[in-house]
Amino acid sequence: MAPDGASAREVKRVPTYCYQCVAGPELLTVKVVDGVATEVEPNFKSADVHPANGKICVKAFGLVQKLYNPHRITTPMKRTNPKKGKDQDPGFVPISWDEALDLIAAKLNELAAKGKVNEQGMPRIAASFGGGGTPTQYMGTFPSFLGAWGPVDFSFGSGQGVKCTHSEHLYGEFWHRAFTVCPDTPYAKLIVSFGANVEASGGVCAVWRHAEARGRGARRIQIEPHLSVTGATSSKWIPIRPRTDPAFMFAMIHAILFEHPRDRLDIPFLKHRSSSPYLVGPNGFFLRDPASGKPLMWDSRLDRPVLFDAADVDPALEGTFRVAKAYELGADGQRWDHADVLGATSFTKMVEHLRQYTPEWAAKICDVPAESIRFVASEYLDAACVGQTIEIEGRTLPLRPVSVQLGKTVNNGWGGYDTCWSRTMLAVLIGGLETPGGTLGTTVRLNRPADNKQASAKPGPDGFMDYPMNPTDKENWIGMPQVRNANRTLIPLVANSPWSQALGPTHLAWLFQQETPPEWPQMQPPDLWFVYRTNPAISFWDTPTISAVMAKFPFTVCFAFTRDETNHMADILLPDCTDMEGLQLIRIGGTKYVEQFWHHQGVALRQPVVPPMEGARDFTWVSTELAKRTGLLASYNTYISRGAAGIPLRGPNYDYTLAPDVAYSHEDIWDRSCKAASMEISEGKEERDLAWFKENGFLVKSFSQLDWYLYPTMVERNMRFELPYQERLKRIGLELGNRLHEKNIHWWDAQLEEYAALPEWQDFPAKWENVVVKMGGTPEEYPFWLLTSRSMQFSWGNNVAIQMIREMARNMRGVGGVLMNATRAKEMGIAEGDLVEVRSPLRATKGRVALAQGIRPDTLLIIAQFDHWATPFAKDFESPSLNTVMPISLDLTDSTGSGADVTRVAIKKIGGAR
Amino acid sequence: MTKYGIVADLRRCVGCQTCTAACRHANATPPGVQWRKVLDIETGEYPDVQRTFLPVGCMHCDDPPCMHVCPSTATRKRDDGIVVILYELCIGCAYCAVACPYQARFKIQERTLAYVEGATKNEDTRFDPAMLGVAQKCTFCVDRIDDGLAKGLKPGVDPEATPACVNSCIAGALHFGNVDDKDSNVSRYLAKTEWSRMHEELETGPNIYYVWDEKR
How far apart are the C-alpha atoms of B178 and A530, rounded to whole Å? Predict the structure, then answer.
């Protein structure tokens, strides 16, 4: 019984938000008893507007222990030991906020005087933020400070590229403005999931939507090497051999194309909303009209070539046709002029390409019966409902209630292009890309404007959407990296938005600090590194090496909740106000990853539910102080006024802009944001101030469901999805190769091969086995695949130091240990709870084994990320981590710069159960 | 008549433990004391394996074995079916914990804390020495129900009158209400589904109903 229930204590409930993971935000209330935060509850008032009925996930319940955590850094600290390293005591001593800010400002002013970029043209300041962009929801106006400063290097990842769905980010945005991809779950009949662990990582919106779908009879087939919580709640589990998902998917498409009639496909969609009818010439590029340069199709009715945008034509979906005059445009302007040339449709090129990938072929690779692959293909077609429509908000749209979902590690690293292409192509085949029930993009991060998916879909070349590729032509290619991960130099698809740098390939920044390729000067470390809500010394790969690299950074400033493995190398620690102490207004609603699809949009306030701990400071206060002390106040205030803190302060009939020379309090800044946001939402009718938001928590207006789907925009702007044939990627790949080879760079050649017009099966598992050999081992010595998986309790939370979260996670099978197939373990003499060593050619990690039948005999699983040695509480876990044994290697980096969370390992018992 | 019960739809539960955490918050239980929790159960042999998430806790039995063995009459069954413990009467003999076939009862002798460094502010605020040395278990958040009813609210419908675990469930797997009222939310749910109860053979009349399919 709650002891505070009966007594006459002062009780209030304070609304705020939780945004600890990318699947946020969640709106909650905190019960405060006599000035002490005691209980977290969903904000029941949000049930009518929130897609998950206003629910909040388990992570939010850890925030009270975070607030009152005995391990919190309670005052700014400075390092007294100039030597840095895991084995060095930093000798942190308390200092005042004034001294801390003066030390940082002095360093910043020194760097400004030297020039904000170093001799190599790299920003002198670097910044790393974790959790898939979630720190932005907590760091107030700090982005405005960084904006006012100027060049900042976001290269040093905390996991981006290797822990996110990186290849999907890039190809997803390219093909359908989908930074992340998800099913339109509310209408789904069938979801085929390749390792997507949405029940653990999708947040409350995904869990709610999928539970509702199951409740009305929707099915999900889970294809993955272990039986995750998502597999557990699926109707079928198919345990596939790791890294072979592309083979399964190719065979699925093969079965659909070769074993079912064509009329099971959405022929009108293929003809008019995809590039399927575009004719491809003998050199592998589109046949183009000599006069206009436009790609050609073959009109079946007139029996002649027509431009791709010709009206009232019936383009041939399949076949090879003779064109009297056309040309192909290759890389770097190379042109082939043709007379009387044969061109096959892109669709035909795909069909012929996939002829080789039969279910029997894939069965051997995937260790899955061919009939299972056929079954999934057949179920997929049956659920597609080709021809059906649905009316949404008065508009009739195609209804295609089937989709394919890809998990992290499946859509990332080698094979990521293949799985992303296959998934998107499977949607195109049945007309289910960006249509109700089908495969949807959640948000945009690489295209602009980032807050409007529809507006970002602008017409580009050849009838496709435009895309802000990094240049690959001779004149404009960025041959000398501008930041330490060389993202714009190597990755055309990563674009150049504010997110591009942080997307990476971020592991290259860490790799190049150790050894920069000889064609470029040895990259210098940043002169100053800001770190917030991230711990790359635990969350990246080859973590001991990452730790050694960051130990060489000369001046590191960490905003710190507790001590941890990364801030062990810091020069200054700053205790910011934690989740329940800070003040910030953020945007909510619309559509956003992972499965946030709202009927509303608006703003929500995070506020101090209790007075901040003495010693902690609000992030906005810190930012203003830094701006003041570095002479950047005017520019900083301008950034805030323009909306860098989330809300532009001036609109058609309101103006709350900041005067340039005033250092505003953080309350004043957010009061103005509240007023501006409420005026924006109400279209100038109602001004709500900070006091109103503190009482009410959030304010929303309606958001059209039609904006969940890109399809209506594609129709309105007469655009086609750029599938199946990747002519543009083939061209830029060749151009990138030309540029790199002109500089005598050949270490990216394997990645260049991935720029294929149609994805080709490579022996993906062998790529990992080859790395074993390169590191001096043999695949037989390392017979297991080691995988990782998210837990809802920990994912993105930066919450490993919170006891309640640990306690909740331990209720789930295998968390904190090494999950292994029970039968295989018995054969090896390993019993439940035994202490085991999991060793890759790089090094070993240790943990307790947990046995299960729901995992392949050739696979081990370590859930979440541990192996802490500095973080209080967590350092006593004795929990293993894949990150410790995972090598960072160019050989395991794909053309988008991403890598997959998997490595080959051996396991042996080194101790008995406790 | 009123008989409160919980419907747990196993098709929806994902084992996230949000209910476990919400219960710990609402009832200020110390670390490790989980009146509500979700079991993670595997059956079968590779590759034919099922994994099920099973929310468990006090079943508020119609005929509670814990009550019958209680020598101090501390354990009682209310008219609305909720099994409660009067802590001032409990002598901490733990017979009830042994008798409960659902392992729903806890007893701690000493205060336990989240961190060895000492009690946190919220732990101090909520610490109740009366909970030491006595049996404790899920109460269906009886205070919320009573307070809610006093305000004219409906348990299982209005969150202020509903157990914290049910309020928190992010999968809509948990439902609370009066199973004796054929028009209640839970009775309607049970009428259209296939369900079972744990250890039915013991004839305790448990009041957590596990739904596993639509009515056939």
Answer: 56
Asked whether the predicted pLDDT for residue A2 surpasses 50, the reply is no
pLDDT at A714: 98
- Domain for residue A460, yes or no? no
Chain A residues with beta carbon closer than 8 angstroms to that of B13: 233
Output the pTM of the full model: 0.97
What is the C-alpha to C-alpha distance for residues A10 and A33, in angstroms, rounded to an integer?
Answer: 6
Segment A37-70, tens digit of pLDDT: 999 999 999 999 999 999 999 999 999 999 999 9
A6 has pLDDT over 80: no
Q: Considering only residues 813 to 832 of chain A, which have any Cβ-Cβ distance to chain B shorter than 8 Å?
A: 813, 821-823
Note the pLDDT of residue A7. Answer: 58
CATH code of the domain covering residue B53: 3.30.70.20
Residues of chain B short of pLDDT 50, as ranges, are none
Q: Do A39 and B25 touch (CB under 8 A)?
A: yes
- Complex ipTM value: 0.98
Chain A residues in contact with B18 by the CB 8 A cut-off are 55-58, 61
- Domain-embedded: residue A362: yes
Which chain B residues are Cβ-neighbours of A217 within 8 angstroms? Answer: 214
Q: At which of A411, A426, A441 does a domain end? A: A441
A471-519 confidence digits (pLDDT tens): 999 999 999 999 999 999 999 999 999 899 988 788 999 999 999 999 9
The helix/strand/coil state of A694 is helix
Task: Among A421, A441, A461, identify where a domain stops.
Answer: A441
Phi, psi of A827, deg, nearest 5: -60, -30
- A239–B46 CB contact, under 8 Å: yes
User: Distance between CA atoms of A697 and A30, rounded to whole angstroms?
Assistant: 12
Domain hosting residue B164, numbered range: 4-214
Span A288-308, average pLDDT: 98
User: What is the C-alpha separation between A382 and A190, in angstroms, rounded?
Assistant: 9
| Cis status, amide bond into A544, omega within 30 of 0 | no
Q: Tell me how far apart the alpha carbons of residues B141 and B27 are, in angstroms, rounded to a whole number.
A: 8
Q: Which of A1, A185, A193 to mutate to test the interface with B (most CBs of B within 10 A)?
A: A1
In a domain, A281, yes or no: yes
Residue A788, strand partner residues: A862
In angstroms, the separation between the Cα of residue B41 and the nearest Cα of chain A is: 8
Cβ separation of B46 and A237 shorter than 8 Å? no
Q: Token pair 């739809």 is at which residue? A: B9
Residue A434 belongs to domain spanning? 181-441
- Given a cut of 90, is residue A914 above it in pLDDT? no
Tell me if A495 is assigned to some domain. Answer: no
Please report the residues numbered 642 through 661 in chain A whose beta carbons come closer than 8 angstroms to any beta carbon of chain B. none
A858 touches chain B (CB under 8 A): no
SS3 A687: coil
- Which residues, at least 6 apart from B122, have a Cβ–Cβ distance to it below 8 Å? A36, A37, A38, A64, A65, A67, A68
Task: Kindly indicate the confidence band of residue A133, based on its pLDDT and cuts at 50, 70 and 90.
Answer: confident
Cβ–Cβ below 8 Å for A58 and B128: no
Question: Could you tell me the pLDDT band of residue A155, with boundaries at 50, 70 and 90?
Answer: very high
Torsions phi, psi of B213, nearest 5? -165, 170
- The token pair that represents A883 in the structure block: 């990150």
Inter-chain Cβ pairs, chain A and chain B, closer than 8 A: 193
Q: How many domains does chain A have?
A: 2
Total of domains in chain B: 1
Band of pLDDT at residue A1, cut at 50, 70 and 90: very low
Query: What CATH number is associated with residue A429?
Result: 3.40.228.10
* Of A208, A852, A873, Cβ closest to residue B171: A208
CATH number for A789: 2.40.40.20
The CB density around residue A284, as the number of other CB atoms within 10 Å, is: 17
Centroid of chain to Cα A361: 32
